[in-house]
Every structure is written in structure tokens, then in C-alpha cells.
Design a protein that fits this description.
Elements (H helix, E strand, L loop, with lengths): L1 H23 L6 H26 L4 H47 L40 H65 L3
Helix pairs in contact: 1-2, 1-3, 2-3, 2-4
């Protein structure tokens, strides 16, 4: 049971450091760091569950109560980590959306002849040149003063941004799964070591007991 407690303690400390690093600059944090935090949260949750199951089998009441108190604290820390991590991810997404919108608006050429409000100027409707049905009138097809090339570039940029976002999300999922598997393997290794030590102890005890039996 002490092995599981130490493992959960180390995982909790590692998650705290990673979240602090993420909080320093959410917008510039790497997807790898987010994947690492997600995998660590999953691994810590499983370690706490294993610790809880082991505590249920503890025969000494005082040790069991102490373990339950530690488990309660670990679960509270895990909940706080997840809430903080979700908020940081939201802040990062908002920052990226704002940055992408600013870049897209910056790519559009500035036309001094086009007012900020397309309805700020009133054109004479009596003239055939300014009729909305006249194909020679530029406002008949683009009411907001944007050319077809501008619209095509912005559409392409939005599609490219969406593709990159989906790609980053898929990579984060793969990283999270890989780190979760590594965490599980490390945890199982520690458990097997503890089981092996207990088996050796039992074997030595049985060997000494049989050795004391009279022939």
C-alpha cells in the first residue's frame, strides 16, 4: 500500500509542475505538454483507484483510516488539476481564435474608397450605372467591398486552420494514449515488484517454520 501512496504522490507533484508550466503561457504551450498532462491525470486516477481497493483490504483499522484520508486528499487534488487544466485549454483556444481572426483581417487589403460601413454612403439609385442589376456595378456582387480573391484567400486560410487544429487534436490523443500506456506499465511494474517481495517474505517465513519442525 505504501508503494501506491508513493506513486500517487510522485504523479501528483509531476502534474502540479506541468500545470504550472502550462499556466505561465497557455497560448505558447506545446501540444506535447497538454498530452503529457492528460496522460498523467489518467494515470493518477487509476493509481488512486488501485490505492482505494488496496485500502479496503487493510486489516489494521488505523492504517485503513489513514489511507482513506490520503485517498480523499488525492481525489480533491485530481479534481482541482482537471478543472485548472480545462480552463487553461479554453484560454489557449480563445487566444488562438483571436490571433487567427486578427491575421485573417490583416490579410485583407485596405481600400480607402470603401467605407468602414458599406451603408454609410448613399449612391444615386436613379442612375443605371448604380443599379443592383447592373453587372458593371461592383456592389451588385460584393456588398461589403471585398473582392472574390479576398474571399477565396480567407476561405482557404480558415480551412487550413481547421485542418491544423484537427491534426493537433489527433496528435494530442495519440500522445495521451501512449503516455497512459507507459504510465500503466510503470505502475504494474511497481506492483509486481511489491508482490514479488511479499512472496519472498512468505517463502522465507515458511522455510524457517518448516525448518523448526522436529523430524
Amino acid at each position: 500500500m505504501n508503494t501506491l501512496f508513493n506513486s500517487a504522490l510522485k504523479q501528483s507533484s509531476s502534474i502540479r509542475r506541468d500545470i504550472d508550466a502550462f499556466a505561465e503561457n497557455p497560448a505558447a504551450s506545446s501540444p506535447a505538454l497538454q498530452g503529457q498532462i492528460s496522460a498523467s491525470l489518467t494515470s493518477l486516477s487509476r493509481t488512486i483507484d488501485d490505492y482505494s481497493e488496496t485500502a479496503k483490504k487493510e486489516l489494521i483499522h488505523a492504517k485503513q483510516e489513514k489511507a482513506y484520508e490520503r485517498i480523499k486528499n488525492f481525489r480533491a487534488e485530481l479534481l482541482n488539476y482537471r478543472q485548472t487544466f480545462d480552463q487553461l485549454k479554453k484560454d489557449r483556444e480563445d487566444s488562438q481564435t483571436t490571433q487567427a481572426r486578427t491575421e485573417l483581417l490583416g490579410r485583407r487589403p485596405h481600400h480607402t474608397s470603401t467605407p468602414e460601413n458599406p451603408y454609410a454612403q448613399t449612391l444615386p439609385s436613379s442612375s443605371p450605372l448604380f443599379s443592383t442589376n447592373n453587372p458593371r456595378n461592383p456592389q451588385s456582387s460584393l456588398a461589403f467591398g471585398a473582392s472574390p480573391n479576398d474571399y477565396t484567400r480567407e476561405t482557404h486560410a480558415l480551412r487550413e486552420q481547421s485542418f491544423m487544429s484537427n491534426t493537433n487534436t489527433a496528435l494530442d490523443e495519440y500522445l495521451e494514449r501512449g503516455r497512459a500506456v507507459l504510465g500503466d506499465l510503470g505502475q504494474q511494474k511497481e506492483i509486481l515488484k511489491g508482490t514479488q517481495r511479499r512472496l519472498y517474505s512468505v517463502a522465507n517465513t515458511l522455510g524457517a517454520a518448516f525448518g523448526d519442525l522436529p523430524l
